[in-house]
Amino acid sequence: xxxxxxxxxxxxxxxxxxxxxxxxxxxxxxxxxxxxxxxxxxxxxxxxxxxxxxxxxxxxxxxxxxxxxxxxxxxxxxxxxxxxxxxxxxxxxxxxxxxxxxxxxxxxxxxxxxxxxxxxxxxxxxxxxxxxxxxxxxxxxxxxxxxxxxxxxxxxxxxxxxxxxxxxxxxxxxxxxxxxxxxxxxxxxxxxxxxxxxxxxxxxxxxxxxxxxxxxx
Length: 217
Hints:
Elements: H1 3-25, H2 30-33, E1 34-39, E2 42-47, H3 56-73, H4 79-101, E3 106-111, E4 115-120, E5 123-128, E6 132-137, E7 141-146, E8 153-154, E9 166-167, E10 170-174, H5 183-192, H6 194-198, H7 203-216
Antiparallel strand pairs: 1-2, 2-3, 3-4, 4-5, 5-8, 6-7, 7-10, 9-10
Helix pairs in contact: 1-3, 3-4
């Protein structure tokens, strides 16, 4: 395969990478960020990342195909580089498959009448409201203080890292791209008021959170 063809395909892969990064940074409307959702069979309020685009997975899969094609084309002249490219394509395909099937999760927080649920980087956590003692926010995480240990359930190989805090008294919920909302006040309200928790299964809680997000933006 000619170097010019390899160079052209490499340029296409770079363009796809840039497209993925740009789509991943796009701000989503409040109606797409705050929705109803389900966790463990209970309906609640889902707080999705407020950056991203519905077509990002298409661009991601195209990049996987491009990297794999680049590796196949380079087999004759650059076997070591081809091996690295094919290995990278396999890893990217695994991550794309995990995102497409929902095994990876995107960090969405789902607040139901039963508790807090999050699936992020293949690590699933559920904290019942009765076990919540408080919430500490950091630039990267929501650290939920608990009355008993919470054990994450892992659905993927640990390529994307682990939760930064997993102790008998606290667990971290990564807040990457989650919208600005008064999370501490929300957690305090729902962990102490059974009546307030029941509203999480209704549209009223969703509309209230959307109004807060719109005013904060």
